[in-house]
Specification:
By secondary structure, the chain is mainly α. The chain has four helices and no strands.
Length: about 100
């Protein structure tokens, strides 16, 4: 089942393009989050709606994009870290080995 049929059509599918508001799109994304869908699915829905409106504007079927500017936030914090000096040395050695192997082929 594709993103539109699974997530967008049940909530917005019977509405006219001109009747859909930013608030309704944000509400749909909140519903997806509440139903357990992760950031990736929520963001795919946002991107697809935004793309659909961009194409509708080009085809003169819509005059504005209510999905433009909507941000989807990750619930979980991604722990970022840098490689230690030891890890950097090991990584560099591995890159060099792979580079030599690739160049010798």
């Amino acid at each position: 089942m594709n993103i539109y049929n699974a997530h967008i059509s049940p909530y917005l599918g019977k509405m006219r393009l001109s009747d859909i508001t930013t608030l309704q799109i944000k509400s749909l994304i909140r519903i997806l989050a509440k139903d357990g869908y992760q950031f990736e699915t929520q963001n795919k829905v946002r991107i697809l709606i935004c793309d659909m409106y961009n194409k509708a504007i080009l085809d003169e079927m819509a005059i504005r994009n209510p999905a433009k500017g909507i941000k989807v936030v990750r619930d979980e914090e991604i722990e970022r870290r840098v490689l230690s000096k030891e890890e950097q040395k090991c990584f560099s050695k591995q890159l060099l080995v792979h580079f030599i192997i690739i160049c010798s082929v």
